[in-house]
């Protein structure tokens, strides 16, 4: 009967392990919200979210994060502008155009692009993209444009990977049908296959947005990090994102300042939860 | 005509993607390799030698400790989902949804949480333990997903055969299903190692940035943090390049290994 006993114990062990993910999300939510939300009320939710003055060193200090929210939106949008088209076309290349021998080299290359650590990207941005932007467009190089270019590069593997598998999931009869009706390869791909893979491409974009908005180190290294509200035309000036705000000041912050930084994290977290929700809605549609 | 343009754009995009990658790797190798001197691998870090060895050792320790926590939990959790839970049960739905949430959370949020929970609330301070625990939560969904997928890919005939020979569920899982699923699980573990090696934002407020080989409750910096520190100090650019070379070498090695493990599954 010893075996029955083991069987029962291990069943419980397995089940408790399965609950770890739920526990982790629960703990993260509790600690993050308990740490950040009170500060939001102390500062005033509207003031915190829509005020433009972040000066923790002033007396009295001011904690308003609109410049950082807008900053995150700018660099994410910029990254999409560059990363989405290049990523989708590269996925099309890998799926339909590229010779098989080349594919064997390029596919691992995409995985490698995904594996490069974000500090290495950040460093590359510092030594290559920053001087490039400075010399080509002027300004000091640490700018919204620089951050967008770097971030666009970093989300490429995400966009390419998911778009490629979405394209491969489209039944090949569609392609053959299009060709039989007289379409050439490009028309079959761009007129039939890509629209058929639309929701997969959408999922790729949403996941890319999630990656971009959560990226921290690489952005911090090239974005300039000024806490000023930028207008859309000022893409050669520096900006600070929500993520950078946390990582720059968390090391020395105390009291309300620290709580305000945690609250910055809460805002980021809520953004991410919304994006995740959107992603799972799209995926559910795909599954149907 | 339109087709031609689309084809040209397609080629151009692929060229941009892959030349960026080649440029990134080539540039860092070209600038970094000349700085790979023996002094860089001295046992102790000083401002003279800027040794990366303590960081390398810390990285290995962090990887080992994080895996020690996340692999059993992740694998057991997947076993529960695939082998034990009833299909469509509430728990399974919740576990899947939360795992998905975890995999979408950016590393800076993990860093914040780790700092609030492990460092402050549990009072571990900036330490190897706090950093590893934070990272183990971060890689948990990855281990769960890859294990789940490889368990599912084990044909049911294996299980039925084992039951038919009189083995219980537990024995079947450990003797038959897990060995068959091992290469897939391994591929996931290797990917997880890659994420730990490259991580910075989640570690900077949990494991800290001291350049030493830490004890369990001591602060130490991994290779990625080491490189971040060097490049933001701005004094040791050459050594930062060299550290990037070592990081890239590790990442390339990990990717090759993981691809090999994945190929092993495909062969079956």
Fill in the CATH topology of chain A: MetI-like fold
CATH architecture term of the largest domain in chain B: Orthogonal Bundle
Helical content class of chain A: over 70%
General shape of chain A: globular
Using the coordinates above, name the CATH class of the largest domain in chain B.
Mainly Alpha
Order of strands across the widest beta sheet of chain A?
Answer: 1-2
Second-tier CATH architecture of chain A: Orthogonal Bundle
N- to C-terminal distance of chain A? 46 Å
Overall average residue pLDDT of chain B: 88
- Determine the structural class of chain B based on helices, strands and strand pairing: mainly alpha
Brief summary of the model shown:
The complex is a heterodimer of chains A (288) and B (268). With 288 residues, chain A is mainly alpha-helical. Chain A is built from twelve helices and two strands.
Draw up the topology in text.
The complex is a heterodimer of chains A (288) and B (268).
Chain A: H1 2-43, H2 45-50, E1 54-55, E2 62-63, H3 66-97, H4 100-115, H5 118-137, H6 144-169, H7 172-180, H8 185-196, H9 198-214, H10 217-222, H11 242-249, H12 255-287
Antiparallel strand pairs in A: 1-2
Chain B: H1 2-32, H2 53-84, H3 90-104, H4 107-121, H5 128-152, H6 156-164, H7 169-198, H8 223-233, H9 237-267
Helix pairs in contact in B: 1-9, 2-5, 2-7, 2-8, 3-5, 4-5, 5-7, 6-7, 7-9, 8-9
Question: What report would you give on this structure?
Answer:
The complex is a heterodimer of chains A (288) and B (268). With 288 residues, chain A is an all-alpha fold. Chain A has a single domain, classed as MetI-like (MetI-like fold, Orthogonal Bundle), CATH 1.10.3720.10. Chain A is built from twelve helices and two strands, in the order H-H-E-E-H-H-H-H-H-H-H-H-H-H. A two-stranded antiparallel sheet of chain A has the order 1-2. The two termini of chain A are 46 Å apart. Chain B is globular, with a radius of gyration of 22 Å. Chain B folds into two domains: 1-35; 38-267, Orthogonal Bundle (MetI-like fold), CATH 1.10.3720. Chain B is built from nine helices and no strands. The model of chain B has no long low-confidence stretch (mean pLDDT 88). With 268 residues, chain B is mainly alpha-helical. Chain B has helices spanning 2-32, 53-84, 90-104, 107-121, 128-152, 156-164, 169-198, 223-233, 237-267. Classes of the chains: A mainly alpha (288), B mainly alpha (268). Chains A and B meet through helix 1, helix 3, helix 4, helix 5 and helix 6 of A and helix 1, helix 2, helix 3, helix 4 and helix 5 of B.
